[in-house]
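#onboarding

Welcome to the new folks! Below is a worked example of what a typical request in this channel looks like: someone posts a single protein sequence, and someone else replies with the predicted structure as tokens. Don't worry about understanding the tokens yet, we'll cover that in week two.

Example request:
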Amino acid sequence: MQKKIIALAIAGLASSAAFAQTNVTVYGKIDMSYEHSSGTGGSKTTGINSGGHDGSRLGFRGEEALGGGMKAIFGLEYGSLKADTNAGITGSRQSYVGLSGNFGTIIAGNIYATGANWAGKYDSLDAANSYSPLQYFNGNFGATINPYATQNSVGYTSPSMSGFTLRGVVGFAPMKLDTVAFNTNQERLYGVGVDYDMGPLSVGVVHHRVNHIGNTGPADQRENAVAATYDFGPLALTGTWQTMKSENAAGATNADFNIKSIGMTVPVTKNDLLRLMYARFDNKMAGAAANDDANSWGVVFEHSLSKRTIGYAGYNKMNNKGAATFKTPAGNGNGGVTNATVAPGGDSNGYGFGVIHNF
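Example response:
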């Protein structure tokens, strides 16, 4: 009997050791803010917004050592916290499983696109949902180089090699639900990116290609982006440039534009950070639409109340040209109030202040 008890105890310890090899981290953030926005000849809106700076989320990530330097990894991240309903945290930001080792990292599922790293890393406003014109312009016409995830995708990230990191993604119908059984023109996204990081200098290049948009024959989309940032110590300067051109199934161009931005981050004190950005949207479509451009600038001030809590205030100004109707992103966020509308060629602006708590 005593031997059986000892054997069971050893088995229990072995089982506990096996489970101990899987490390799971629970993390998240809550971002709530007061925001107001208005547009010339349009509307006004005021309310409590979720995700004015960072999208509120709840996540789980973990890893298990497999031996030989290889690990099994997984991640589940949920977001879209609503400020005006009792829906709670819903919607998948990421859900993946993969392997990592000396060869790099491979993951599959609902994953961040190749450009997600580019957009967040080189956005001087930290891709703030309600104040970054780069974030707003980037996704206004369905660009895929942005901080969002692509579904049904496989991604690869290489280890750093003399400062260079390679990234790639292949998405199987990543943008819309695909009816493969009835349509052989399945949508595909191909993305590749290169980052160079050495000391204060960082440079990033991204190319995305979407074939058969919406599962429609020759409907294609091409995107390119390049960015750089240099940290001088007292401040850091950032610049970005990107293009997108798409054609419908009939071969007609339905979107053609480029976006340029320049930004700055300035550490004011040990606990205070000032972020600034100016961005321009240039419409390259033929005819009168070529005049539908826009200029926008944004500013965000952050104050660290603790290691986990940040207070912030932000402002965005949008100036439309021609018949453009771009709205200030203020109020858009990840839920809550909706940003104000604006008349063609009019201006809009928005401001707000809030608190982010990370856990």
